[in-house]
Amino acid sequence: MSELSVRDFYDELAHDYHLVFRDWDASMAYQAEVLDGLVRQSLGAGPHTVLDCSCGIGTQAVGMALAGHQVVGSDLSPVAATRAAAEAAARGGRLPAAAADMRQLPFKDASFHVVLCADNSLPHLLSGPDLRAALLGMRRVLRDDGLLVITVRDYAEARRTRPTATPPQVSETRDGQVITFQLWHWHEDGERYDLEHFQLIPAQNTWDVRVRRCACWALTPPQLAKFVAEAGFTDITWHSAASSGYYQPVLTASSGKSGEAGGHGAGPAR
Known about the structure:
Elements: H1 3-13, H2 24-43, E1 49-52, H3 61-66, E2 70-75, H4 78-90, E3 97-99, E4 112-117, H5 128-141, E5 142-151, H6 155-161, E6 169-173, E7 176-186, E8 192-203, E9 206-217, H7 221-230, E10 234-239, H8 241-244, E11 250-254
Parallel strand pairs: 1-2, 1-4, 2-3, 4-5
Antiparallel strand pairs: 5-11, 6-7, 7-8, 8-9, 10-11
Keywords: Methyltransferase, Transferase
Protein name: SAM-dependent methyltransferase
InterPro entries: Methyltransf_25, SAM-dependent_MTases_sf
C-alpha cells in the first residue's frame, strides 16, 4: 500500500473522523487525561513540549494542548492537520500543525519533551526500514530523557484469531445515527492486512455509504518493542488498557542520554 493511499485515506476521512466517536469532545478529554497522567508520571508536572506526529484532526493533540502542554501537530494528511489546528482554536487552544511524513520529521534535533504517535498510526508503515526511519526520527527530535508514547491495537490477539471485521460503532448526529465499521483482508504473511473503513451516514431516508481503504502491519508487542529498542530507546514499558485506563495498549520509552548506544538518526503516518 503506497503512502499516497494512506494520505488519501485520511484526507478523505478528515471531515468525518469525529463521527467515529459517540462524543468526540468527551473522548478528547478522556484521552488527554490518561496521556497527561502517563507524561506526568515519567517527566513531572510540566507543562511539556509535545509533538503529536500523527495528530489527525486533533483527537489527542487538542486535549493535550487544552491541558496546558505546548503541543505541535504533524500528520501525513494536510486536510487533517489543517482541521486539527482549527478545532484547537475553536476551543480556545493553540495547536500549530503541519503536513509531514513521520519518517522525515521537519523539526530540529532535541525539540520536544514528548513525542506522541497514537490511534494505531505507526502500523501504517508496512516495512522494517520505514518503521526504523520513523522511530529514529522521533528519537532525534526528543530531548535527553524525553518520552516516546505510542498507542496501537492489541495485535497479539488479532494475529492469533485473524478477525475479518470490527464491531460496528454508532454515534448520534442531528440527522440520525452514523454507523462505522471496518473489514480486514489478511495478507498471506499473516501479519499485514488491507483495511476497508465503512461509514453509513443518514441521508434523506437512505444511507450515504463512504468507503476508504488502506493497509496496516499487525505488529505484536514484542515486535514493536524490538524496533523501539533498536532505535535507541530505553525503559520500554507496555501499559495495558486495564492498567492505564486507555482504550488501546500504550508503549512508553525513554530517549535516554546523549551519546548512549543507538544514536540519533535522520528521519506514513496516519
